[in-house]
Specification:
The chain has helices at 3-16, 21-33, 45-66, 98-111, 117-146, 148-154, 176-206, 213-235. The protein contains eight helices and no strands. The radius of gyration is 19 Å and the shape is globular. Helices cover 64% and strands 0% of the residues. The longest helix is centred in the last third of the chain and has 31 residues, at 176-206. The protein is mainly α.
Length: 240
């Protein structure tokens, strides 16, 4: 088996099992956490805001990606590759894998809660190794399915680091329903994880297990909104 075929095989396996990545991410997070004895940045509100802004930036990238993509593309499917057409406009005209770019920033902001540079470097390297295989497998699927149409698009659009020189505006309108329907889970999970990890940081490193009223209300509000949207999505046609 050639090296590229091996990467495609591994990439397809990782694609099907990518939902387990957060488990390994959290293991790395806690390994890093126990390397820190104390840090004023745990208590610095501006650092926390910066970390959250980094993750929120990743969420914005995801929103721009799925806001007006055609049905049958850019999905959360894990069983097999799927694409009914090639996305070439909007954010897809500046980067080929915007969802994975968005995921990177969302996780980077979380890892930045532990203010040690080697942890962010290790996370970045592991993230790239993991998702590079998935991207290779996805691109192999698209090449086989769309042929020259894929090659003519991909030769001018970078895989992961955006380039705006060939930006093409997407003429279709953004769908708020589509954004809420497809991103409420990741956005809620990001906020809840931030609140939980912030509290664990304070408790394990600083010995402060008290949850302030602000964190409590953020958690209550986030969980309530999640349950409400989940109910509306499941039992009504509001987000169809």
């Amino acid at each position: 088996m050639s090296l590229i075929d091996e990467h495609i095989k591994i990439g397809n396996w990782l694609f099907r099992n990518r939902s387990y990545l957060p488990i390994f991410g959290l293991i790395l997070y806690f390994i890093g956490l126990y390397q820190v004895k104390d840090s004023y940045l745990f208590q610095d509100k501006y650092w926390l805001i910066f970390c959250f802004t980094t993750s929120f930036f990743g969420q914005i990238i995801r929103i721009l990606t799925i806001a007006n993509v055609p049905i049958g593309t850019s999905g959360r499917n894990t069983k097999k590759q799927r694409a009914s057409s090639i996305n070439v406009l909007g954010i897809y005209s500046i980067v080929r894998h915007p969802l994975y770019l968005g995921n990177y920033f969302m996780w980077l902001g979380i890892f930045m809660l532990i203010p040690i540079i080697w942890l962010q470097i290790i996370f970045t390297l592991l993230y790239w190794i993991y998702y590079e295989r998935i991207m290779i497998a996805e691109e192999n699927y698209l090449q086989n399915k769309f042929g020259e149409d894929y090659f003519s698009w991909s030769k001018n659009v970078p895989a992961f680091i955006p380039s705006f020189k060939n930006y093409k505006k997407n003429s279709s309108k953004y769908s708020i329903k589509n954004i809420i329907r497809r991103e409420y889970t990741s956005f809620s999970a990001m906020i809840i994880l931030f609140m939980i990890l912030k509290q664990l940081n304070n408790g394990l490193i600083l010995g402060d297990w008290q949850i302030n009223s602000y964190s409590k209300w953020v958690l209550i509000l986030t969980i309530s909104i999640y349950i409400m949207i989940r109910y509306l999505k499941t039992y009504t046609k509001l987000f169809k």
